[in-house]
Design a protein that fits this description.
Elements: H1 14-24, E1 28-30, E2 37-39, H2 41-60, E3 64-66, E4 71-73, H3 74-77, H4 81-87, E5 92-97, E6 100-108, H5 113-123, E7 132-141, E8 155-165, H6 168-188, E9 195-198, E10 210-217, E11 223-231, H7 235-240, E12 243-245, E13 251-253, E14 255-262, H8 264-273, E15 290-294, H9 299-317, E16 323-325, H10 333-342, E17 347-351, H11 353-358, E18 360-365, E19 374-378, H12 382-407, E20 409-410, H13 415-421, E21 426-431, H14 435-445, E22 448-453, E23 461-462, E24 469-470, E25 472-477
Parallel strand pairs: 3-7, 15-16, 15-17, 20-21
Antiparallel strand pairs: 1-2, 4-6, 5-6, 7-8, 8-14, 9-10, 9-22, 10-11, 11-14, 12-13, 17-18, 18-19, 21-25, 22-25, 23-24
């Protein structure tokens, strides 16, 4: 890659590296409305694969998809006090329609708990109507002031699950189940290691009794909240009168949950796996798992090479691999290699005249640069070789990201060391749980409690900030 085409180094300017990768890898572009984005076909292909992987998991756990309105009466938003307090600064409000001022302003959906609450109140009459297990695939709007493609935009795409249950225990089990679903997806589809845990009271979703999240470390050691699951208790049920008659014919309020994962996760994939050459996409989610580049100098070589390429492509497609053949004749093979490296295709297959003669292909792995990642393999049984290479590549990406997180997670002995750690990574520290203590840490270090991991070391300690007794350790870090 020539100097003028090189990306900024991740180590010297991670932010600019990210911005350039998103656009030069053809994932997204800026929209004419400030803070909005256009997701291009390559980026949407990645999102479609994320959707498919999640949707399969949702349906396996008994959930069904539905569609709810984009516009919500403003009065709905104000019915849950903590909810409106949390979302009021981010609301986009429609005041006119059809050339006239509306009798009641309409809020452009920032999330759907309120319209869901109104609807479930109509649908639920008896314990026989429960549980309701619904998921939505949609976009939402939050009036963000500081935006960045995929990570924080005014409009973004996501899924939001909304369920209603007869008991607290069922709602809590649902909330935790979906956290496990997100963890499984992140690690086994995206090769992104995450820490599942519960949020502090200050970091909870507005209106929730409890919020759980998966937290991932990015390539600059900042944290990203990659998915959330909320136990809403009876807060929305009481605000919207979601009631049912139990088996004793007594009226009870439902217990509800909500959970979501958005296109923000694409940002996580970019920042966890990418390198100074661009994207490295996890094989299970990549729009193209393999790119094939034919190499020839003249018409005499072209025919046999294209025949071999066509044969190999059909062989791989028959085994459900996603294959792209780059047939552009106005570009050199080297240019194509650089472009597909930028776009993060996991495997590249090159076939030239020598490969035709030998019955081989050149196979290059995106996660290993240069000669280290290149090998020559037989065209016979190519599908098995590819399957093994993709599985190994996934494991390699996961192991590398996990090793990076462990190397940059510290257990500081005191608050002085804690402040030093916040300049270079995460802290896994004893915390008293006091909100004042948490606020002081944030003010002094710009770090937040990312989560209190479900997996705890046991025992007790003293709070890293105030020295008071502590029963749990929390992850602290600066975050996106």
């Amino acid at each position: 890659m020539s100097d003028q085409l090189k990306l900024p180094s991740r180590t010297t300017d991670f932010s600019e590296w990210y911005n350039q990768v998103v656009q030069r890898a053809d994932l997204a572009d800026y929209a004419p409305v400030r803070g909005c984005m256009i997701v291009k076909p390559y980026g949407w292909g990645l999102w479609e694969n994320i959707q498919a992987a999640l949707d399969k998991r949702f349906k396996a756990t008994g959930h069904v998809n539905a569609g709810f309105p984009l516009l919500i009466p403003q009065s709905f938003i104000t019915r849950e006090a903590k909810h409106i307090e949390g979302f009021a600064p981010e609301l986009a409000v429609v005041t006119h329609g059809g050339g006239q001022e509306l009798e009641e302003p309409l809020v452009v959906r920032p999330t759907s708990e309120t319209i869901i609450g109104h609807t479930y109140a109509k649908w639920v009459q008896s314990y026989r109507d429960l549980p309701i297990l619904i998921n939505l695939w949609n976009s939402v709007v939050r009036w963000e002031m500081r935006t960045r493609l995929f990570l924080r935009t005014m409009e973004f795409w996501w899924q939001e699950g909304h369920t209603a249950h007869a008991t607290y225990e069922e709602a809590e089990a649902e909330t935790r189940q979906m956290l496990r679903v997100y963890t499984d997806f992140a690690e086994n589809e995206a090769a992104v290691p995450v820490i599942p845990g519960r949020k502090s009271e200050a970091e909870r979703f507005p209106g929730a009794d409890m919020t759980y999240s998966i937290e991932a470390m990015m390539g600059d050691t900042k944290a990203l909240q990659a998915g959330t699951s909320h136990n809403l208790g009876q807060n929305f049920a009481k605000s919207f009168e979601i009631k049912y008659l139990d088996k004793n014919n007594e009226q009870q309020f439902c217990w509800t949950t909500s959970w979501g994962l958005s296109t923000r996760f694409i940002g996580a994939i970019i920042m966890v796996h990418g390198d100074d050459q661009g994207l490295i996409l996890p094989p299970k989610l990549a729009p193209h798992q393999i790119v094939m580049v034919p190499i020839y100098k003249n018409d005499a070589e072209k025919g046999p090479v294209l025949e071999a390429v066509d044969r190999a492509q059909k062989q791989l497609v028959a085994h459900d691999f996603r294959v792209k053949v780059d047939m552009r004749e106005d570009l050199t093979p080297g240019f194509k290699f650089n472009e597909w490296e930028m776009r993060g295709v996991p495997l590249r297959i090159e076939i030239g005249p020598k490969d035709v003669a030998k019955g081989t292909v050149a196979l290059a792995r995106r996660d290993k640069p240069g000669k280290e990642g290149k090998s020559f393999v037989s065209q016979d049984g190519l599908e098995g070789i590819i399957a093994e290479a993709l599985a190994d590549l996934h494991a390699s990406l996961y192991d590398r990201a996990l090793a990076f997180r462990k190397a940059n997670t510290y257990d500081p002995k005191d608050y002085t060391e804690f402040k030093q750690v916040m300049e270079k990574g995460w802290a896994f520290s004893w915390w008293c749980g006091d909100r004042t203590c948490e606020t002081q840490i944030k003010d002094e270090t710009k770090a937040t409690t990312r989560c209190i991991p479900l997996e705890q070391p046991g025992g007790e300690g003293v709070c890293v900030h105030c020295g008071q007794p502590a029963k749990e350790k929390a992850i602290f870090g600066r975050a996106y």
